[in-house]
Design a protein that fits this description.
The structure is a homodimer of 174-residue chains.
Chain A: H1 5-20, H2 25-36, E1 41-42, H3 43-50, H4 54-67, E2 70-75, E3 78-85, H5 89-121, H6 128-153, H7 156-173
Antiparallel strand pairs in A: 1-3, 2-3
The structure holds a DNA duplex (30 and 30 nucleotides).
Chain lengths: 174, 174
DNA sequence: CTATAACTTCTGAAGATACAGAAATAATGA
DNA sequence: TCATTATTTCTGTATCTTCAGAAGTTATAG
């Protein structure tokens, strides 16, 4: 599959951004390609288009599927799986938010809660500082958690409207 | 400097989370240590506490300084620099937001704008799809940019109040 | 049942990153 | 100026990550 230069530019950049966020470059590129593709793609088409090994496409697709970002679909009369991703950016946002929350924020909250409990329970004298700092961080993380929780629940259209509304409200606060 | 087990737990976890976000483990640990420390620390104290090489502490501190997350201060009668970080979580949030926006969102916006312009200007017939997808992504990123811009400007206390207010509003939208 | 196609997992090599210790530089005080 | 201390930069090694190709597995058609 030959790629329009503009699509290529986007895909390359997306891959680069991915690496900055702990996402494998190939994985991010596959996702970008699927995002731009008018119809679902077979693994081999991805191999050809991005010029990466079949095995990596397989692994990458699997990872994207565990993230919930990519779905496999079938076409009648063809054994091969076709892969696609959501094209609604707000849906994408929601899925990524949910997963990152689950993988990163939730464990952090757990650790913080333990830490705060320990700092409070300790009979030691020198902990008020620790307690205070950890408590502030916990409060912040809990608020972030609440935002994430709520945002992940909203359907894309509502999310978009709310984001635009929030932007206006923000404006007033300035 | 000996570290309370609770502090240790937090620092280790913070380092681990850092790696997931493209932040070097040592750098994240140094930051966590400074966040918990009641007073600014000298580089050697960090070396001793985290058991990492002096050179890495030097590099890590420099990186944190270029992020604007750490400041060097002086103590009368001591040649050594002391390092500290903001203890207000909302200030931290703001600084990190500003930097990530500058380093990641801004370049992405630039690329996206170019891509959209190219897709629109192209005389080719097969681009409406590309135009649509890229346009949707651009719109999303521009909204994110606006949020980032506004949030980075607000002072911490206002930011915190707004975040709490937003949380309540969010609740209503559910 | 066999051949083939689609897909996944394994393995080793290449590349990138992290990091300790050494060497070099800069700053301070005698 | 020289000696000492603080700090940064350099360099090689260890570790982690990425990735292609091979080997293995599963599914399908004939």
């Amino acid at each position: 599959m030959n790629l329009h230069p503009t699509a290529q530019k986007f895909i390359v950049h997306w891959g680069e951004m991915g690496t900055r966020w702990g996402i494998n470059r190939s994985v991010a590129q596959i996702h970008a390609l699927l995002y731009l593709s008018p119809e679902p793609l077979a693994a081999d088409e991805i191999v050809e288009t991005l010029a990466i090994a079949r095995s990596n496409v397989s692994t990458g697709l699997r990872e994207l599927q565990t993230w919930g970002l990519v779905r496999a679909t079938q076409v009648l009369g063809d054994r091969r799986d076709r892969f696609s991703t959501a094209t609604d950016v707000w849906e994408l946002f929601r899925v990524i938010l949910r997963e990152r929350k689950r993988r990163e924020l939730d464990p952090t909250l757990a650790v913080l809660r333990e830490c705060v409990a320990e700092a409070k329970a300790a009979p030691a004298p020198a902990l008020p500082h620790l307690d205070k700092r950890l408590g502030a961080m916990l409060e912040y993380m809990e608020l972030a958690d609440s935002w994430g929780e709520r945002a992940a629940r909203l359907e894309p259209a509502k999310l978009r409207r709310l984001a635009k509304l929030g932007d206006s409200i923000f404006k007033l606060a300035e």
